[in-house]
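Each field is listed here:
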Amino acid sequence: MFLHGEKIFLRALEPSDVELLYQWENDPEIWKISQTVTPYSKYTLKQFVDSALEDICSSKQARFMINIMHSKQTVGILDIFDIDFLNSRAGMGILIDKKYRNQDIGAEAVMLASNYIFNTLHLHQIYCNVLHNNNISFKLFEKCGFVTIGIKKDWTKTSNGFEDVIMLQRINN
């Protein structure tokens, strides 16, 4: 258990997570958000898990599985990416399995990761990008203290045309 809250804990990726990642990463509904256009093989995902073991300073990223405290059930993944120690910032993204959404699991995970970014990595700010029509993610980050700092017009190409992306930011006071 790496970071723990009341309902959940965040932990490092394990080789046994490949099967679950295979399900999530190959779900076409998620592709629009993750900018994926082709399926992932289990081999590729195993390499992904293996690369998560790299040092955070050299890889500039950290990935955590989200688990329910009492059952140890894995229900999501949280990525900290583009870690920039020079400018003291990092990006954040989260995926919660459909069955576990709207249960405050995402909010607790974002808050645990934010505390890690601010208090352990000593970074100054976190940012995230949310598709304009992804109200669930927008409300999640807003609930966790992120504020809108801009809109990237026609940023993401989808089957319905181009969509705007809302950029949010949380600064460590």
About this structure: The chain has a mean pLDDT of 87. The beta strands are 3-4, 8-12, 62-68, 74-84, 89-96, 125-131, 147-158, 161-171.
